[in-house]
Amino acid sequence: MPYSPKLPFAGMQNLNAYDTVMNHQLETVVQAFDPVYGDAELVYMAMPTSTALAVGTIVTKVATSLTNVPTPTLGNVTVANGSVATAMPTGAANTAQAVYVVINPLTSSATRQFGWVLKYGQFPVLKTAVTVPSGSRCFISGTAGRFYVTASAGKTLQGMRTANTASVTSTTSTVLCNITNPMIQGA
């Protein structure tokens, strides 16, 4: 899944890797293309420390003050209310939070890493161990960072729907989804 930027710019961080330097303003959005999944929009975020995230994990953002953040031109800076990705919590019903999908595996590190997450496009997303019929709506599950297709009040992932053309078995861990600026259902 090698994403390429549609309009690359000088100093642009690789879309397919993390860096310990904050190379862009957080929440920078770029248009990208993948030869398998097509057009996409990616958002630049700080990733959680001491946490591993698998490809396809659904994440939300939390505002956290980041101190001593290394940048390529300004040295170390403090970022007030920085956007830090965190695995979508199971109790996030009715929060109207934006959600994103991890496109590169994140290894656990005590050092903050920065990289790109998906906000628009088609991508395989982690699900719980349930069978997924084609064209299903997605809901927050009881497993952080994963979805399921059982309707749950206040837990609809608006802007996310499965793109599978046949049922996906409960033993398959991901399912292809259409992702269009998704968010958790609001109150």
Report on the architecture of this protein.
With 187 residues, this protein is an all-beta fold. It folds into two domains: 17-119, no CATH class; 124-184, no CATH class. The protein contains no helices and eleven strands. Strands 1, 2, 3, 4, 5, 6, 7, 8, 9, 10 and 11 form an eleven-stranded antiparallel β-sheet that branches. Strand 8 (137-140) and strand 9 form a beta hairpin. It is globular and about 50 Å long.
Describe the SSE topology.
Layout: E1 4-5, E2 29-34, E3 38-46, E4 58-71, E5 75-87, E6 99-102, E7 114-126, E8 137-140, E9 147-148, E10 156-162, E11 174-184
Antiparallel strand pairs: 1-2, 2-3, 3-7, 4-5, 4-6, 6-7, 7-11, 8-9, 8-10, 10-11
List keywords for this structure.
eleven-stranded antiparallel sheet; 187 residues
Mean pLDDT over the residues: 88
What does the largest sheet look like? 11 strands, antiparallel
Q: What are the secondary-structure elements, in order, as H or E?
A: EEEEEEEEEEE
How much helicity do the residues have? under 10%
- How far apart are the first and last residues' alpha carbons, in Å? 35 Å
Q: How many distinct folded domains? A: 2
Low-confidence stretches: none
Radius of gyration: 16 Å
Oligomer: single chain
How much β-strand is present in the residues? over 45%
Count, helices? 0
Shape call: globular
Report the strand count. Answer: 11
Secondary-structure-based class equals mainly beta
